[in-house]
Amino acid sequence: MENLYCCLITILSCSLLLISKNLLFNHVKNKKLPPSPLALPIIGHLYLIKNSLFQDLTSLSAKYGPIFFLQFGWRSFVVVSSPAAIEECFTKNDITLANRPRTMAGDRLTYNYTGPGVAPYGDLWRVLRGLFVVESLSFNSLQRTSVIREEECQMILRSIYRVSKNESQVRVDLSHWISVFTLNVMMRMLVGRCSIREEDAGEELGMQIIEEFREMFGSSISMNLCDFFPVLRWLGYKGLEKEMISLQKKRDNFGQGFIDEFRCSNTLLDKEKKALIANLLSRKEKESVFLSDDAIKSFAFIMFTAGRETSTLTIEWAMLLLLNNRTALQKLRTEIDINIGHGRLLRESDIPKLPYLHCVVNETMRLYPAAPLLQPHYASEDCKVGMYDIPKGTIVLANAWAVHRDPKLWEEPEKFMPERFEVKKLMDKEEFNSKFLPFGMGRRACPGANLAIRSVSLAIGTIIQCFDWDKVEQDGDLDINFSNRITLQKAKHLEALCVPRQESILLLSQL
User: Fold this and answer.
1) What's the rounded Cα separation, in Å, for the pair 199 and 297?
2) Residue 377 vs residues 50, 96, 97, 208, 244: alpha-carbon distances, Å
3) CB-based contact 488:370 (threshold 8 Å)
4) Cβ atoms of 71 and 42 closer than 8 Å
5) Has 89 been labeled as part of a binding site?
6) How much is the pLDDT for 282?
7) Could you give the CA distance from residue 278 to residue 269 in angstroms, rounded to a whole number?
8) How far apart are CA 380 and CA 121, in angstroms?
9) What 3-state DSSP class applies to 240?
């Protein structure tokens, strides 16, 4: 019976792929496609992906050029890996490539694509993105919520100080404390209160809450085998779709609970907290065509997934790189000492006075961009990139990892050198923007760049201002391996040795 089942899957897969291949061939037979490796029957080029997707695509671009074509099952991809090709995609062809591909995860985890990050290009997307920017990402919104980020930084500093003040050195799980900071910031921006109380942050309860959030919001809407071979989805491959349905039910109950709570209380009238969900609900009458409960929950879930996780990863990588590069760490500490001192904590308003801190953040995002492959774009019409035709229905992937580590574009690209981002060393802005891509390009670029830069810079700056840090293992560099084939999540928690700086003890004791 099992052999018969496997045989049926094979026959259905072959039939579907042959039909798809014929349709694709009829559509592209007179077009000049980008170069492509040898494709195998049925699976196409999937056999070439053996390690991290972005690293394998970078290796292929070295062989086939900055624009090349791949077939994964019935899906067609074009990978672009040079500033010129990426700029052409998101300037000349920006509208044509402004859509996202539909995926099984997108179908199940996005409320029918009602979030600003996944909505189809058009009126819905414009309204949702506009609301998202005005309510949480505009300059005024960021100024208003800066106190949240500063208070949560203070909570982390107090917690670390409590466990380190009586020790010569204490071992600190930086990954955990960074996660507490980013989770509480997002929760307070969304609903006006933190998720992890200070007294629980370092205890088992705090760790449990972090893990629960990772399980609930750690899943991305990236593609899986069911998107390349639809027959697998029909057959319930590995129960993936059932898991997504169950996960979305859990997410929905979580988000709806906050909406119901705001509706049943007078919190909506609280102008001090300015919680995002409350503000969106108060706008709902004006924007009723687009602003449903599902859309509001989509806003929240984007903050938890894209917003929280990317900032967490960037802070973690920055601290790891600084611990591995004592000269850069000392230079940053000196800049903070000179410009801020020890009489008060660094504030968000101080960040423009700390150019080397900005260089450290930029260099971290160059080496370890949170999204090494930018969000996929879907060609709604035929278009041209370089000398090649891109057929309608093709998925375009921009490989930021390849661009950020291209030796033709960056001196010693594998080396951590924050100084490369000093203003006097940068070329003209337009050229720079096309080779530094942590937040993407064009109209579908990440709107949360300013929030991310503020959060990351504040967290790094304050923990460097107040504590001396060192590696747990003194010989060799800290582990830079990552565990995810799509993102740059670290394989192991980042731990470091910590002691309060003598100059900061009085300040820390008064927090």
Assistant:
1) 29
2) 23, 9, 5, 36, 23
3) yes
4) no
5) no
6) 84
7) 8
8) 10
9) helix
The one-letter code for the residue type at 308 is R
| Structural domain count of the chain | 1
- Which residue range forms the structural domain that includes residue 345? 31-509
pLDDT band for position 252 (50/70/90)? very high
Taking the C-alpha atoms of residue 34 and residue 165, their distance in angstroms, rounded to an integer, is 60
One-letter amino acid identity for 90? F
What CATH code is carried by the domain that includes residue 469?
Answer: 1.10.630.10
Asked whether residue 215 is assigned to any structural domain, the reply reads: yes
3-state secondary structure of 438: coil
Q: Tell me the pLDDT tens digit for each residue of 455-495.
A: 999 999 999 999 999 998 765 566 566 655 566 777 788 99
Could you tell me whether strands 75-80 and 395-398 are parallel, antiparallel, or unpaired per DSSP bridges? Answer: parallel
Whether 336 maps to a domain, the answer reads yes
How many Å is the maximal CA-CA distance in the chain?
75
- The whole-angstrom separation of Cα 502 and Cα 500 is 6
Residues 6+ apart with CB under 8 A from 333: 464, 465
pLDDT at residue 3 in the model = 44
Query: Would you say 363 and 432 are in contact if contact means Cβ atoms under 8 Å apart?
Result: no
Given a cut of 90, is residue 57 above it in pLDDT?
yes
Q: Which helix (H) or strand (E) segment is 71 a member of?
A: strand 67-72
Q: How far is it, in rounded angstroms, from Cα 496 to Cα 169?
A: 10
Residue type, 435: K
Alpha helices in 29-138 (DSSP H): 53-64, 83-90, 104-109, 123-132
Task: Give the strand pairing for 67-72 and 75-80.
Answer: antiparallel
Classify residue 17: in a domain, yes or no.
Answer: no
SS3 state at 65: coil
Contact present, 418 and 410 (Cβ < 8 Å) = no
1 lies in some domain: no
d(CA 252, CA 302): 13
Q: β-strand 170-173 against 495-500: which pairing, if any? A: antiparallel
